[in-house]
Design a protein that fits this description.
This protein has 405 residues and is an alpha/beta fold. It contains 13 helices and 16 strands. The chain is globular, with a radius of gyration of 21 Å. The protein binds nicotinamide-adenine-dinucleotide (NAD) and uridine-diphosphate-N-acetylglucosamine (UD1).
Amino acid sequence: MVAQENFKCCDHIAGNIMSSWSTVFVTGGAGYIGSHCIVELLDAGYSVIAVDNFANSVNGERGEAPSLKRVERITGKTVTFYQCDLLDKPRLEKIFSEHKIDCVIHFAAMKAVGESMQVPLLYYKNNIVGTINLLEVMKTHGCYQLVFSSSCTVYGNPDVLPITEEHHTGNVTNVYGRTKYFIEEMLKDISAAEKNWNIICLRYFNPVGAHPSGLIGEDPTKAFTNLMPYMAQVAIGNRPNLTIFGGDYNTVDGTGVRDYIHVMDLASGHVAALNKLKKEHLRLKTYNLGTGQGVSVLQLLRTFEAVTKTMVPFEIQDRRTGDIVSMYANTSLAERELGWKAKYTLEQMCEDFWRWQTMNPNGYRGNSNNSASSENGRTSVIINGSELMDTDWAQLWEPFVQGGL
Ligand code: NAD
Ligand code: UD1
């Protein structure tokens, strides 16, 4: 198998288009971005083998991933899933031995900024050693095609906006961000030293939203502090108000500005990256995945209120330590070279996030108060008081309602 794969890689370097790729290995596949990306991969015709250790995602009773069960429902296709920790190299090795893997998308990481400052060693071990294990196993099996989940956090405080991929990196203010920066540097070194590697680093801006079906979304097992989930918690009545960190920044309305991107746009960015790797031997290339639009906290809040017809009470307090003022992407490189452009609007990000939130108040851990009925070919599903009527997605929900998933 190793010899075969090496031959394939040489073929690739020789410039042949690797149209025969079919199997993608996805680490962290049960997580937020991974699960949405798998929908796009399956829709694009790839077979998917996913692993996750459930450090930050919900596990089922038999070690299955409920998020991926729902992905199967959405796509009508199956996902091969293994509960596997990237720190468990022998297990990773075994999975690679049992499958012919063409390329890897590496999402698995711990990502809580605050937590990373409290337990830095855990973050360095999980994110960096996990990545080293993965790279070593890939190399042993002659698989050199990789898409890596990086973050705009590697830029630190921007000198110019919108920010391009050429902007210097490394001036990072937190441990989580430093793990991303170190891995990027490591990937640069190995791709310079070993010509077989073909790697794309994708620097995500601020992913939000959920699949429009409302079947999958973000359901971390650790507490989250990002803006949109917090805003939704206030809108749903679980928290009294939103604290806006700083109202005196030099921005359109004094509040911090970010580049929010719909998670389904991010997902399609990965398919575009795989298409690129298939066609060209890049060694290593980095792309921003954002919309290019800077949106302030207050602008997001007002859009969220209008779309969801809710009120989000807020109070403006001190700036959050380590926060940057404004960050948004120059996306022209991804547009030009990947043929990819974000297409979802801010309204759709809010609408889809809200659908996921209201239809799954307990995330993947089960719904209550649900019903479904079909009449004359029309399906109506009521989940926790929200009705999905006669839409493409209503029919997908029906079995989950019956099973109480
Ligand atoms: P997530 O926590 O929902 O998903 C990551 C998944 O990886 C989780 O299911 C977790 O259980 C798993 N995991 C962690 N360590 C593992 C290990 N050692 N072995 C196996 N599985 C492991 O996070 P996400 O938002 O989907 O992020 C995916 C990737 O994108 C991460 O690398 C993250 O750093 C990066 N990223 C995320 C954001 C964001 O805001 N969500 C922004 C920029 C970059
Ligand atoms: C955070 C992470 C970053 C990660 C990114 C994407 C930090 C310091 N950085 O960035 O590493 O790559 O998420 O997931 O956490 N805000 C409020 N009130 C809140 C929450 C946030 O006003 O309760 C404001 C923030 O000050 C900021 C904006 O909302 O201006 C977005 O914050 P957040 O969602 O936490 O993302 P980032 O700070 O961009």
